[in-house]
Amino acid sequence: MADHVDLVLAQWAAERPDLDASPMAVIGRLTRLHRMIDAELRRTFGSHGLDGASFDVLATLRRSGPPYRLTPTGLMRASMVTSGAITQRLDRLEGRGLVVRSSSESDGRSVLVELTDAGRELVDRVLPDHLDTEQRLLAGLTGAQRDALTGALRTLLESLGDASE
Amino acid sequence: MADHVDLVLAQWAAERPDLDASPMAVIGRLTRLHRMIDAELRRTFGSHGLDGASFDVLATLRRSGPPYRLTPTGLMRASMVTSGAITQRLDRLEGRGLVVRSSSESDGRSVLVELTDAGRELVDRVLPDHLDTEQRLLAGLTGAQRDALTGALRTLLESLGDASE
DNA sequence: AAGATTTATCACAGCGCTAAGAGATCCACT
DNA sequence: AGTGGATCTCTTAGCGCTGTGATAAATCTT
C-alpha cells in the first residue's frame, strides 16, 4: 500500500536524487495526520460552540483537579503556546464566563485562572464527545498497533525533551 | 520513562475515572510532536525569509518536476488546506516573484501556477537545510524505530483515507 | 539598593477557515 | 441541437488564533 507521502518521496527521489528525503517519511506523515485529525476535532468542538484553543485551556484546568486553578504560565507550559497566546485565550474565555482571573496573594506578578461552574460543566459535557471522536479516528488500528505507535511517539517525544514534570 | 502525555492520562484517570481517555495516548502525542516539530521547522524557514506555508507551495511545485506547474486545486489537495488559503499563499508568493499565475487554455475556469527561476533557486537552496533540520529532529530514534514509526503512521493515514493518487 | 529575572499584557502582523460569489464547464432533458 | 441547472474553479471578505517583540510591574539576586 502507498499513501500520499510515499508519492512525495518518490517525486523527490526523481527530482533531487542527491538529497536524502527519508526524514519526510516520518515528519510528513506526522504533519498530514495532524491536519486530518485537527480538522475532525475542530468539528466536534464547533458543535459545542468551542474551538480547540479554548477546549485546551478548559481541559487543562479541569484535569488539574479541584480547585481547577492554574497560572497563565502553567497553562502556557501545558499547551506549548506563547504567553501572548494564553493571554488572548483567557480574554476570550473570561469574556464568556468560563474562567475567572484573580491576582495571586503570594506573588504580585502572578495571576490565578480558575474554572467557573459554567466552564466546568461545559468541559464535562464536551469531553465524552471529544473522546468518541478521537476513538473513531483511531479505529483503523488494532490494539497492538496503537500500543506500538504510542511507544514510538513517546520515544520520539522524550528524545526531544518532553518531560512529565 | 514518562512524558507529558503520561501525566495527562494519569490526571484524567484521577478526575474522570468513568471515561476512557486512552485515545489521547496517541492523539495527544501527535499533537505535541507536531507543535515541537513545527516550531523548529519554522525557524529554519525563517532563516531563509520564508514560512512553512510558502515553502509548502514551492516544494510541491518543485517536486512535481518540469515544468514546475500545477493548478491551485492540485496544490490545495497536496497541502490539505482550503482553496481560500491557497489563493492567499499564491498572492504572497506571486508578489515576491517566486511563482507566476497564468490562465489555462484548456479550461477557462482554471489557473496554472508555475515556479519562477527565483522560486526554484530559493527552494533548492532551502531544501538541504530543511532536511538537515528534519534529520536532527529524528536523531533520537534508531533506524529500526524510525521504520516502525513510519509503518504505524502509514497504517493510520491509510485508515483515514489518505491515498497516493 | 541596583540590576537581572520572572510574569503577564498589549499591539501588530501573518496565516487559516468559513461563507459567499463570479465565471466557466458539464450534464440531462426536451 | 439547445437550454437551464448542477458542478467545478478560483477569488474575496471577514473573523479567529498564533507568534513576535516591546512594555510594565513585582520579585529575586548580589
UniProtKB/TrEMBL annotation, chains A, B:
It comes from the Bacteria. PROSITE patterns: HTH_MARR_2. SMART domains: HTH_MARR. It comes from Kitasatospora cystarginea. This is MarR family transcriptional regulator. Residues 23-158 form the HTH marR-type domain. It holds the Pfam family MarR_2.
